[in-house]
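Lab channel / #folding
Pinned by the channel admin:
"Please post every new chain as: sequence first, then the structure tokens as a reply. Keep commentary short and put observations after the output so the thread stays searchable."

First post following the new format, from NK:
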Amino acid sequence: MKRLNITLPEEIVHHLEGLPNKSRFISEAVQEKLMKEKKKKLDELLKEGYRTERKEDRKLNKEWERITIEGW
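Reply from TO:
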């Protein structure tokens, strides 16, 4: 564990006042946010990969169709 000195807006501090373990709550909230950001980045990478592969898939499908038609 590492101790940090952070600054939060008054409104957030007001919501934290009633919590018995503020550190744990903040830690869990940060972990959740980091996981969401990681998932968002992964989703974007997957979308880009699908876009890239889609072009290659279309090319392969056209080649396959040509070969299949020639065999008839």
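NK: The mean pLDDT is 90.
TO: also worth noting, Helices lie at 10-16, 22-70.
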